[in-house]
Amino acid sequence: MSFTQMLAAKAGTVTPQMRHVAEAEKRDVEFIRSRVAAGTVVIPANIRHTGLVPCGIGRELLTKINANIGNSSTSSCPRSEHDKLTVALKYGADTVMDLSTGGNIEMIRRALIARSTIPVGTVPVYEMVARAGGDNLSRELMLQVIREQAEQGVDYMTIHAGLLRSHVPLALKRKLGIVSRGGALLAAWMTSHNAENPFYEFFDEILAICLEYDVTLSLGDGLRPGCLADASDAAQFAELDTLGKLAARCRAAGVQAMIEGPGHVPLDQIEMNMKREQQICGDAPFYILGPVVTDCAPGYDHQVAAMGGMMGAYYGAAMLCYVTPKEHLGLPNAEDVARGVMAFKIAAHAADIGLHKPGARDRDDAISDARAAFDWEKQFDLALDPDRARAYRAEALRESNQPPQNPLHGTEYCTMCGPDFCSVRLSAKLKRAAQQEEPK
Length: 440
Description:
The protein is an alpha/beta fold. The protein has two domains: 5-354, Radical SAM ThiC family, central domain (TIM Barrel), CATH 3.20.20.540; 362-437, no CATH class. The protein is built from 20 helices and ten strands. Strand 9 (286-289), helix 14 and strand 10 (319-321) form a beta-alpha-beta unit. Helix 4 runs parallel beside helix 15 (334-354), helix 7 (139-152) runs parallel beside helix 11 (203-213) and helix 14 packs parallel to helix 15 (334-354). The longest helix has 21 residues, at 334-354. It is globular, with a radius of gyration of 24 Å. It starts with a helix and ends with a helix. Mean pLDDT is 94; it is low at 405-409.
């Protein structure tokens, strides 16, 4: 008998995964169960992924972030991908995707799943093309790779089933055409074979595999815009309409599903894009790449995309796919992964605070109390990146001209203001004086 978190939720069963998510989100367990049953929350948790700490993804929950790792045909090695996963876990990624397209794909994925305590996602078409070439994809190979990855323990898979043959001419009118690797590969295959998207054609067979292992489908946006000029066009929204229908088929089958979203989008179009997905896809969790909000900042796209991600999350996105400083330039290394994760953790957290999600501001209030008390260690412990906060503080003290014998050195002020100009220190004195003057 098939088991998925959605089927259990529809039957009124509360799973251990649902209980864990409810506790982590500070929500009632019935709230989580009902949302999983409705398909507005997903809990990617392949029955074969041992050691997984469950995580809930949905608009009403804390915004999650994903870190993409994986090798290419020209760069990286299994050890490098191990290091990237370590960094992603350290800095707080909620999920990780293995986008390997070079050698050792199966070995890298197996090692990542064995070590990862967070959900692992993949884009199976990459392995299919690596095995057979882009023009030699067959139904048998495609289903075989999807099944093998499911058996390994992959928690969610990006399947570009919404990109139809009729959409390709719309995309070719764009400035940048099709920028999704999976989308471009499938568009080329459909054109070469004069045939419909095979993922769309045998979608029911894909659903059957997902039911067997409780794999969450991430319905891929093969026609996401790759530049601001292409945002919110006919190609993007034609695919989105198809994704909405596929999401309904997932729910009917008891398979968890989320929707992947744009790409490059100007700030003024982000809200509309988020609301449109909610309407068309029945509020299925929206998993967005950035969005990148300006095209002319290579080397800083992690910051550019985090700006768009914060706005996307505020208007309804459930998970943000990080962008690293190497976006548009090259394969990211471990340091790029760290910078990308941190930029997007901040963006997600800021959106959650603005949306007043349960517990979202607790950390901020606690670090403010620690600052008022000049409790530096507690400030570091509460920081999203304790290592960087400690390093900057130590560097500032080393460069300070204050005499080391000063008893206040490095305790009741920072080197930005010093003891005489420290507003927090002066405020503390004013508070103490006011308290002493209060009538007993």
